[in-house]
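Session log. Operator J.P. requested a structure for one protein chain; no other inputs attached. Running the standard single-chain path with token output.
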Amino acid sequence: MIDIRPVANIVGKVVVTLGTAMALPMLVDWWHGDPHWLIFLECGILTMLAGGLVALSTRQKDKSLTIQQVFLLTAMLWLVVPVAGALPFMLGAPQVGFTDAYFEAMSGVTTTGTTAFPDLDNLPKGTNLFFRFNKGEKIAVVSRNPLAVSALFDILSGEDKDYEGSFEYGQTISKQFLPNDNSAYFSGDQDMNLIDWLRQYSKDKDEAFIRGFLGRMLFSGEEVFKRSGVLSGGEKVRCMMAKIMLANPNFLILDEPTNHLDLESITALNKGLQDFSGNIIFTSHDYHILDSVANRILEITPGGLIDQQMTYGEYLHSDRMRKLREEMYAVAV
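Structure written below.
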């Protein structure tokens, strides 16, 4: 048996150095809010561990380390990377990404293309986005360009097909979408009384069952016979909420859910979103609902995506985040 310990020891030390060089810059990326830093930091740390174990193993004076053993040890450590990347998908968390092929290979998430949006003011065509949901996350999406947020939500909901790139949901995900403009749901052939309107979205067609859901949205008595085409903005939002509740989803996409609602309805909505056990991605101009519901913030800027695990209040008042926002929006100047 050939004793390769001296060479393997040197190789192990070199690998430790390369891993350190890979990992340390990722801490700088984390400080600047780069959402991709974690997986590369993980790769760097695993590289350091692989090299370190090889170097330590070859210091044993009474043993020889074969080439096969060196490769097996390194391969076993590197198996952790794809397994860790695939774990959220295996648990049913939705995977969402708009990115390039290189990061696709590193993440284990099926994404293609480089463009998330059509041309929008202050958001150049070709803007790259990549983000992944973790189980139970409630993400607030903000931007100085609200059209960018609405465009993203239209894509995620499946209503807009005109984009490059791709996204993928876990097999157990059942989604529902509340659009900012809901007029298409209440005009044309959708102009009917509220019982018939909601019945078309229900598996149970029984009138008493439908009335019960409308009652939970504060439609009672003769109000259930109102025509959907004459509803106020707040009444339409309440109808859309009843439609969402009927579907019993575990993933919500909400574009300005507090629009047209009175204070009592906003308070009830806020509590319902806090108690919701699934995933939520939403946007709102209501500071309180952003701060009390979201546990992760995404901001779409001309310079890319800011992705932070914090409340909206922490994000808004952080000096570090304020400086980063200024830098990211300065790209469009």
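Operator note: The two ends are 66 Å apart (CA to CA).
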